[in-house]
Amino acid sequence: MLNALTAEWRREWIQLRRYPTEMLSELVVIVLVFYGLFLGASYMAGGAIFSGRLSDIIVGYVLWTLSMMSVGTMGWTISNEAQNGTLEQVFLSPFGAWFILLLRNMASVVISLLFTVITLFSVMAITHHYLVVSLWDVVPALLMIASAMGLGYLVASVTILMKRSQQLLNLLQFILLFLIMSPTASLSGPWRWVGIIAPFAPVVALLRNMMTKGESILSAGDWLIWSVVNAVLWLLVGLTVFAWAQKKAKRRGNLSHY
Amino acid sequence: MLEVDGLVKRYKTKDRKVVEAVKGIGFSLEAGRILAFLGPNGAGKTTTIKMIAGLINPDEGDVTVNGYSVSGKPKEALREIGAVLEGSRNLYWRLTPLENFEYWAGIRGVSRKVARERGRELMSELGLENKLGSTVQQLSRGMQQQVAICAALIHTPSLLLLDEPTLGLDLDASDRIQEYVLKLAHERGVGIVLTTHQMEIAQALADYVSIIQSGTLTLEGLKSEVLERYAGRSYLFELGAVASVEVRRKVEARGGVWSSKVEFRVVLDDPTDIYDLMRVLEPTAIVKMVRETADLAMIFREHTRMASASEEALRGVTS
């Protein structure tokens, strides 16, 4: 398994290194976004904003982009591999396609995170404004990415069966944005379950408690537990549906010819 | 080494009809042997190959490779299988051969060090050691196919599936691949299932021959036995003038296949049938009559023609 992990990493890295213009344009976009966030927030709210709200915006933005990347990577990988004529070889891996997709997703997230961190530090050094981000913020980030990977498997399942998933991905982005923006955590009665079961909902509540109320992750009430449950649930749902979709695709014989 | 037992594959068409693409196929292959799996387009070759590789799930039957069932123990079975599939690139074109080997070996659980060593070894066997650093897209089509074969062998599988490995390649590349496939089987003990439409390649490589038509195996056996079965039964006739439509029909009714307006081939089970055929041809002059040695191209042509005819006859009876 370690060999598979390192192979996936190396492949991602080689592709980045070999085509520096792609890497450069990705970096430029991230730099511009962060620079815009820093300067825009500074202009609108004055210097005081940098102590609190801006870090929330940046963390929120990073989490959102990483999550969306996790949701989309697996489906994109399947259609891209099919177009490249390598999908069948991926399915010949004894580890199973689900594992290769997971590795690829992890590699993309980590490389993207690396880019983001480097860019963030560079922008902070240039603007002399420093964000205060606790290491504990990593926990909800990981939980959010785990949920996103579960959704990623769902998108991959649709891709494998329907061969197209771009429209679904676009729709999913809006649904997830709605779920994140809605105050699902304050719902009561039977509706409370929506705030627990809906993807990302409890982890967003957890983050809100941590960032706006300044609570520590451990004192953020039940939201930490619900966030773990939510992440595990969506990951399991995604994996189960993907296993079913893979079986169905193999029964139909449509693992290629996209 | 490879046991294919009673494979059945049914597909649903768009109008919800069930079509049986593969109808209870079974065969086996020992290590170090090459099986030429032949058949016309749409006969079920690729479906069978993909069922062996676990890429398509059969509705009935099973495949075992070195004792591991592809459906029951896929992880173990897949470690024993390498495949180069037709219509696929099988490689990342933006990577070099060596980088491809590292990747494909990695996702099969082989370490980078072993992949590099083995990749170099495989490429030098094919005389491509100086291409290790070029990206795959920079290589010729023939070289790409040779690299794909190396990548399929990177985890030292005991079974190699080659679906049309020489399709669209020039003679030189095709010869290199053929030479290498023979070496793999006979010197390294790799079992090879090969599909091809190029009968001369099947003839040159195969130890065993199977012909599939409409999802059913219609001929199978050792190549030498198959050739022996047909030896001396094929005749080539060349006429002195263009045969009339009536004569053409009569020849065809006796199994003759016209290769031009004045030339046809026919396989005769009973050599005395030749008198009947000569009577049919009267009064057209026969300028040449040659008893041919059997080859796979002739056997394939004759066999698929006969199988189609009996299938049509059967359809006529049942409808």
TrEMBL record, chain A:
Superkingdom of source: Bacteria
Membrane topology of this protein: Multi-pass membrane protein
UniProt keywords, alphabetically: Membrane, Transmembrane, Transmembrane helix
Record has Transmembrane helix as a keyword: yes
Pfam families to which the protein is assigned, alphabetical: ABC2_membrane_3
ABC-2 type transporter transmembrane domain span: 56-239
Localisation per UniProt entry: Membrane
Transmembrane segments: 27-46, 58-79, 85-103, 110-132, 138-161, 168-185, 191-211, 223-245
GO molecular function term, any single one: ABC-type transporter activity
InterPro entries in alphabetical order: ABC2_TM (IPR013525), Nod_factor_ABC_transporter (IPR051784)
Example of a GO cellular component annotation carried by this entry: membrane
Protein name: ABC-2 type transporter transmembrane domain-containing protein
Taxonomic source organism: Sulfoacidibacillus thermotolerans
